[in-house]
Every structure is written in C-alpha cells, then in structure tokens.
Amino acid sequence: MIRFTSHSAEETEQFAERFAKRLRPGDVIACFGGMGMGKTVFAHGLARGLGLSDEVSSPTFALVQEYTDGNIPLYHFDMYRVSDFDSLYSTGFFDYLEQDGVLLIEWSEQIESALPPGAIRLSFARLDDNTRELTIEGEEI
C-alpha cells in the first residue's frame, strides 16, 4: 500500500508522474473518490510519466479518451454515467482490457463488480480544500 498526502494539484501531478514508472501495459487503475478530488489532475501526471505527449482532458462526455502519442498508451475512462452492464459494454471497456496500454478509470464505484482481478485501487480522500490523501492498493504495489 502507498499513501501520499498532496497539498496541491502540482504535487498530485508530480506523484502520478513518479507512480507511472511502476506501471506496465495491461495495468488497470480503478479510481475512487468524489467530484473535484483530483482524478483528472492525476491523469495529467500519469500520462506525462508514461511518456505521452497528448493533451489530457476529462473524459466526462466522451466516456473514454485515448492517449497514444508516446511509450505506453493510456485509456482514460469516466464511468460516472454508466449505470448498468449494457451501458458499460457500450463503452468498449472490455475490448480495452485486451489492449497493450494502461487503463485509468474514474468513478470506478459505478463498475466495481466488472473490474478485473488485480486492478490497482486508487482512492482519493479530501482532507481540506487543497489537501488530498491518495491511497494506492494492489497485489504488486
């Protein structure tokens, strides 16, 4: 288990960039935490750490953003609006599990029963307006 206390968006990005060095193609990161907790900020740092030069944005309306301009592709999902298996299936989520990239899934609470075994769990907790505690759990972390 890894615990990190971030006092700013910049610290969250830097932590994610360092954490990305531990990842391999096929890894799935399931994010848990409410709105405004820093999940997309984490995605920015993760993409940079994976050697990607794509511009990272929230996948809220697209459901998934693909970042492929670099070393290891990053597939960034937002499952906020996914309410059942049919809507999950329509995102192409299961096809992405077979790709050679890293999956980062925001709002994993919505699809917890469909997460693959061995998924890395990343939880965000608000300590105050600027401070977050990030907890990462997984078999090989």
Write up this protein.
By secondary structure, the protein is an alpha/beta fold. The chain has one domain (2-137): P-loop containing nucleotide triphosphate hydrolases (Rossmann fold, 3-Layer(aba) Sandwich). It contains 4 helices and 7 strands. The chain has helices at 9-20, 39-49, 85-90, 93-96, and strands at residues 2-6, 28-32, 64-67, 74-78, 102-106, 120-126, 132-137. Strands 1-7-6-2-5-4-3 form a 7-stranded mixed β-sheet, covered by helices on one side. Strand 3 (64-67) and strand 4 (74-78) form a beta hairpin. It is globular and about 40 Å long. The chain starts with a strand and ends with a strand. The model has no long low-confidence stretch (mean pLDDT 89).
Span between termini: 6 Å
Would you identify the regions where 5 or more consecutive residues have pLDDT less than 50?
none
Oligomeric assembly: single chain
Mean pLDDT: 89
The tally of domains stands at: 1
Q: Give me the Rg, rounded.
A: 14 Å
Which band does the percent of strand residues land in? 25-35%
Written as H for each helix and E for each strand, in order along the chain, the element string is: EHEHEEHHEEE
- SS-based class: alpha/beta
CATH architecture label: 3-Layer(aba) Sandwich
The description of the largest β-sheet is: 7 strands, mixed
Number of helices: 4
Roughly how much helix do the residues carry, as a percent range? Answer: 10-25%
Question: Under CATH, the topology is which?
Answer: Rossmann fold
Q: Biggest sheet, strands in spatial order? A: 1-7-6-2-5-4-3
Assign the CATH superfamily. P-loop containing nucleotide triphosphate hydrolases
* Annotation, overall tally of beta strands: 7
- Could you name the CATH class? Alpha Beta
